Amino acid sequence: MVSEVHRKRVEARKSKLKEELGSVLVGREEIKLEIGCGHGHWLTDFAASQKDDFFFGIDLIGDRVERANRKAERVELDNIAFIKAEASELVELMPDKVAIESVYVLFPDPWPKKRHWKNRLIYPTFLNKLAERSLQGCRLYFRTDHEEYFDWALHTLESVESWQLVEGAAWPFERETVFQAKAESYQSLVAQRC
Ligand SMILES: C[S@@+](CC[C@H](N)C(=O)[O-])C[C@H]1O[C@@H](n2cnc3c(N)ncnc32)[C@H](O)[C@@H]1O
C-alpha cells in the first residue's frame, strides 16, 4: 500500500515537472545547465555576461529556486530560468528538442559514506544518462572542496565511455559560489562528451 502511494506521488511529481519543463524550455534547443544551483548567484552572473545563450538552473530545494528566480527577475534577464527538479528526473523528462550544451556541477553534496555514493551526481549511471541528452562535445565542469569526491570523480570520469577528461581546459566563468566562499581550497575537473 505504501509503495502504491509512493508510486503515485512520484508519477504526479514527474508529470508536473514534464509540463513545467515543456513550458519553461519552449522554443529552446540548447541549454547551459547548472545542477544544484542553490540560490543561483553564479549562474545569474554568468547569464548576464553571455546574453546570447540560454542558462538553466535546477535544485532540489524549492526556496533556493524561488530566490534564484527573484534574483534573475531583479536584474531583468530573459536568458535564464530556474526550476525545482532532481537531476535524473530532469534528464529523463526534458523535451526531446532540447540538448545540453554545457553542464556545471559546483560544490555538489559529497555523500561521504560509502553506502551513499550511489547518490553522487558524478556516478556512472547518471553520467551516461546525462551524456545521452548532451550535444557531442558538451563540456562538464565539476568543482569540489571534498578531496575524496574529487578523486572519485577523476576515477569515474576516466572509467566511463560517455565522457573524456580534458586537460588544462579553461574555467568558463569565475565568480565565487556560496559554498566556494566557505571552502579552504577546491579542485576542478573538465570533461567532454564523447
Ligand atoms: C552543497 S550545495 C552547493 C550549491 C551551489 N552550487 C554552491 O556552490 O554554492 C548542493 C546543492 O545541490 C542540490 N542538489 C543535491 N542533489 C541534487 C540533485 N540530485 N538534483 C538537483 N539538485 C541537487 C542541493 O539541494 C544543494 O542546493
CATH superfamily: Vaccinia Virus protein VP39
| pLDDT averaged residue by residue | 97
Strand order within the widest beta sheet: 3-2-1-4-5-7-6
End-to-end Cα distance, whole Å, is 43 Å
Enumerate the spans where pLDDT stays under 50 for 5 or more consecutive residues: none
Q: What is the C-level CATH assignment? A: Alpha Beta
Proportion in helices: 40-55%
User: Total strand count, please?
Assistant: 7
Q: Count every helix, treating DSSP H or I runs of 4 or more residues as helices.
A: 7
Strand content: 15-25%
Cofactors, ions and other ligands in the entry: S-adenosylmethionine
Radius of gyration: 16 Å
Give the biggest beta sheet. 7 strands, mixed
By CATH, the architecture is named: 3-Layer(aba) Sandwich
Q: Could you give the order of the helices and strands? A: HEHEHEHEHEHEHE
* Class by SSE composition: alpha/beta
Shape estimate: globular
Folded structure, characterized:
The structure is a single chain. The protein contains seven helices and seven strands. The chain has 194 residues and is of the alpha/beta class. It starts with a helix and ends with a strand. Helix 2 links the parallel strand 1 (30-35) and strand 2. The chain has a single domain (2-193), classed as 3-Layer(aba) Sandwich (Rossmann fold). Helices cover 41% and strands 23% of the residues. Strands 3-2-1-4-5-7-6 form a seven-stranded mixed sheet, with helices on both faces. The structure holds S-adenosylmethionine. S-adenosylmethionine binds next to strand 2 and helix 7.
